[in-house]
Amino acid sequence: MNIITKTYNVYGFNELSETAQGKVMNEYLKFILEVIPYEDMSNNMKKAIDRANSMHTPWFTGSYIYDYCLDELIESINSYEYLENGDIFNE
After folding, report:
1. What is the domain extent for residue 54?
2. Whole-model pTM?
3. What is the pLDDT of residue 76?
4. What number of CA atoms fall less than 13 Å from residue 27's CA on the CB side?
5. pLDDT (average), residues 63-86
6. Considering the domain boundaries, does residue 2 fall inside one?
7. How many distinct helices (H) and strands (E) make up the chain?
8. How do the residues of the chain divide into helix, strand and coil, expressed in percent and rounded to 5?
9. For 85, which of 3, 11, 26, 55 is 20 to 30 Å away at the CA?
10. DSSP letter, residue 89
11. Sign of the alpha-carbon torsion through 78, 76, 65, 36
């Protein structure tokens, strides 16, 4: 029998490159919009979605969430560790 140990370099969000941080943010925003029901979102996220809908610009929903909820997004994102490319580390 062989035992193989694999090591990973893991990073906090602030340690990632700007490109990797952008990837993390985009994927997290996509996750929120695809998975979390509207009624379970924070009030600021609801305001952002309502703003996009009222402006008839649903393609800007992620931008509005970013503008209205940046502190909330960063807090959630900082609770994970990441690989260098921005993928969530979940071993």
Report:
1. 13-77
2. 0.81
3. 93
4. 12
5. 93
6. no
7. 3, 0
8. 60, 5, 35
9. 3
10. P
11. positive
% residues pLDDT > 70 (the chain) = 100
- pLDDT category at 90 given cuts 50, 70, 90 is confident
Give the chain's domain count. Answer: 1
Which amino acid would we find at residue 74?
I
Q: Are 68 and 48 in contact (CB under 8 A)?
A: yes
Measured over all CA atoms, what is the biggest interatomic distance in the chain, rounded to whole angstroms?
A: 63
- Tens digit of each residue's pLDDT (9 = 90 or more) over 42-55: 999 999 999 999 99
Judged by DSSP in three states, 91 sits in: coil
Quick check: is 87 in a domain? no
pLDDT score at 51: 94
- Residue 6 resides in a domain: no
In a domain, 52, yes or no: yes
Instruction: Return all residues near 78 (Cβ < 8 A) that are at least 6 apart.
Output: 12, 13, 14
- The answer to whether the CB of 16 falls within 8 A of the CB of 84 is yes
Contact call for residues 29 and 77 (beta carbons, < 8 A):
no
Q: Give me the residue label for tokens 């700007």.
A: 18
